[in-house]
Amino acid sequence: IHTIQENSKKIGMVSPTEEMSEWLKTSYELTAANTFIYEPMITEPIDWTTTYDGGYTLEEYQDKGLFVNSKGRYKTLQYHHVSEMFDAVNHLQSTAWRVNTEVLDIITELWNNNSEIADLPNRDFIPEPDKPLNTLSEKARKKSIHELTPEEQGVKRTWATYYQKVKAIRIQNNINISKRFKVHDNISTANKFCQYKQIYFPHHLDFRGRAYPFVKRGIIPQGDDMSKGLLMFSEAKPIVNKEQEKYFYTHGANMFGVKGSYGMRVEWVQRNKEWLMRMADEPLIHTGWADASNPFQFLAWLLEYKDYERYGVSHLSRLPIAMDGSCNGIQIMSLILNDNIMGEKTNCLPTKSPNDIYQEVADSVRDKLKSNPDRDSLKVLKAEGVQIPKIDRKLLKKAVMSVPYGGNYYTVFDSIYSYSLEFLASTNLSARRYKQTRTMATKIATVAWESIQELLPQALELSKYLKEKAKAVILSGKEITWHSPIGFRVSQGYKETIRRRITTAIGTNVRRAAHYGEEQDSFSVVKNLNGIVPNYIHSIDSSIMLMTTNLMKEQEINNLSMVHDSFATHAMDAPKLASGLRKIYLKVFSKNLIDMFDMDMQSCYPEIQESQTQLKRGALDINQLTKSLYLFS
Fold first, then answer.
1. Which among 91, 151, 387, 604 could bridge 383 via Cys, Cβ 3.0 to 4.6 Å?
2. Which residues are bridge partners to 323 per DSSP?
3. Quick one: 56 exposed, middle or buried, by C-beta within 10 A (0-12, 13-18, 19+)?
4. DSSP letter assigned to residue 137
């Protein structure tokens, strides 16, 4: 325990001794990949018939039921209440998986050699620079830089540069710590289960009906890129016709990051056959695959592509072939409102090539900056790609995705600033100017929010409408409930909390305060207003996913990887999945979901008044959904 001086304050500190620092380092290396409670199963999970009798077979794993974190709302729910929901969860968790040992061997080799390709983190902590030798007196530290002598100004600038470098290195080390844990988890779990030909992931639901595996770390179908790349279906199926081949090729192009029509993506694979085969034969030498948007999923595809090109229909594929929704939240909003403009932007209508709402917002932001060349705009454009990321779909994607989930200017800024910091952390450490980066992120966010308001006004109107309905219910002191399309009654009732403080002490001169929220009996207006839009949209996308799962079950498709707005199966079954999910979309959105939501509000709370915001439904032809090639692609 010791005291340090920070500006004019003395602060009590606790620091490790050299011996403890060495022990912590060794301990980290030994325990970073430690096991955890919820792991994959090697036998098929038990079907759910009530909220507490399915999933794992061992009692010690059953401290959670079918509905996790629902605060007991659905504890009496049984199979006959919502049989479709139970059937879908049971079918999802019956999919048999296995570890992709080829991908595992390559990842292990790269990790052991401390390679940093494919966004792998550095295994070592970046050392911090030594402190400058010269120091300023306490009196000089309180003066502005203009009041100092030239020599003192030099010392102050040296210290400013030192602190800037330390901050940059600490950000990089913090990012690397979390990435290292993920890599450790993925590799260790894959090594543990690679001996089994079949592994399973028991599933549960959240209070909106969204399905998740109980396993939260390591290899899981809903995990990160590496996690997905390390998994494949246990059952193998051939690719026997051109339509199935189209989905197989498209998946590879998608994983690399190729955009455009199906024809363009298939043509990209055919045009680059020689390059692809060279990488597949020697992936540790020819590492161009590491530049892909999803490098490890692309690597898994690449290894299958090699065998398919050599053996054709004799090759048995185990790869999940994914098809993703086009900005699924806004897609759902456009269909709720039957809005032609939003529907076209999110590929709900037939088009020759896919539209890209993320790129459209990025183009709008760039155009606005160029058309208003003030000092801040020019600074952003000049720093683009050097001090801040390029203004493209990657930078704006998370910001646009936040719109249907209650997004506002602050969520847009947060996503852009976070992405910018991560970009800086991966570039030259000596070239950091974090204050300027925040200023530029603020400028981009301001322009991006203007563009979103112009391009997606109806989405914001729907958010406003839902919040007005929710506010009336909460102010009446009641919990908000509505029926999702699958027939499940969703209950949202976030309680008010009071902030409490706990003060802890170490010795006599080190004190720290911690805070926690104590839940009250009353409902929180702010939390429920913030939650209603994302929860309502998620209740719809969860229903679509579960209903599609049941349709695939009827068609005897038993291998599915479903991640909310990304559905996957074998290449052989991909055409059936693509056709089936469009039928489900048509079934769900043929009904007026807003009227159904209003009826739920009115039947439970008859005193609720009409909303001041009047929604206007458009003239989108819902039957066009079945003809839209790029609804999911």
1. 387
2. 567
3. buried
4. -
pLDDT attached to residue 257 = 95
Give the three-state DSSP class for 195: coil
pLDDT value of residue 437 = 85
What is the tens place of the pLDDT at every residue in 604-622?
Answer: 787 776 667 778 889 999 9
Contact 581, 548 (CB under 8 A): yes
φ/ψ (deg, to 5) at 324: -110, 145
560 DSSP assignment: -
- Among 298, 214, 230, which residue's Cα sits nearest to residue 258? 298
Structure tokens at 125: 């902590």
Pair 269, 254: CB distance under 8 Å: no
CA distance 266 to 248: 9
Residue 483 is encoded by which pair of tokens? 């029926």
Nearest to 332 by CA among 4, 609, 620, 569: 620
Distance of CA 416 to the CA centre of its chain: 15
Q: Which of 549, 593, 586, 553 is nearest to 567 (CA)?
A: 549
CB 582 within 8 A of CB 625: yes
pLDDT of residue 611: 67
Residue 283 exposed, middle or buried by CB count within 10 Å (0-12, 13-18, 19+): buried
pTM of the model: 0.88
Per the DSSP assignment, residues forming a β-bridge with 569 are 321
Identify which of 330, 329, 611, 597 has the alpha carbon closest to the alpha carbon of residue 480.
Answer: 597
Phi, psi of 18 (to 5 degrees): -60, -40
CB 256 within 8 A of CB 298: yes
Q: pLDDT (tens digit, 9 = 90+) per residue, 492-549?
A: 999 999 988 888 777 666 677 788 888 888 999 999 999 999 999 999 999 999 999 9
Do residues 518 and 495 touch, judged by C-beta distance below 8 A? no
Q: If residue 506 lies in a helix (H) or strand (E), which one and from where to where?
A: strand 495-506
Range list of H helices, 402-495: 409-425, 434-455, 457-475
User: What burial class does residue 609 get, using C-beta atoms within 10 Å of its C-beta: 0-12 exposed, 13-18 middle, 19+ buried?
Assistant: exposed
Long-range (24+ apart) CB contacts under 8 A made by 421-425 are 421/171, 422/175, 423/388, 423/389, 424/168, 424/171, 424/387, 424/388, 425/168, 425/171, 425/172, 425/175
Residue type, 204: H
3-state secondary structure of 401: helix
Q: What CA–CA distance (Å, rounded) separates 386 from 388?
A: 6
Question: What digits encode the pLDDT tens for the residues 188-220?
Answer: 999 999 999 999 999 999 999 999 999 988 899
> What is the arithmetic mean of pLDDT over 105-114?
96
Distance between CA atoms of 454 and 432, rounded to whole angstroms? 34
What's the DSSP call for residue 630?
T
Average pLDDT over residues 222-228: 96
Residues 339-371: b if buried by 16+ CB within 10 A, e if exposed? bbebbbbbbbbeeeebbbbbbbbbbbbbebbee
Q: Is 71 left (phi over 0), alpha (psi -120 to 50) or beta?
A: left
Q: How far apart are CA 365 and CA 353, in angstroms?
A: 23
How many Cα atoms within 13 Å fall on the side-chain side of residue 239? 27
Identity of the residue numbered 492:
Q
**Count of Cβ atoms closer than 10 Å to residue 194 Cβ:** 16
31, 332, 337, 567 from 19: Cα distances, Å: 18, 57, 64, 51
Q: Look at residue 414 and tell me whether its pLDDT is greater than 70.
A: yes
What does the radius of gyration of the chain's CA atoms come to, in whole angstroms? 27
- Residue 158: its H or E element: helix 150-193
The rounded distance, in Å, linking the Cα atoms of 109 and 117 is 12
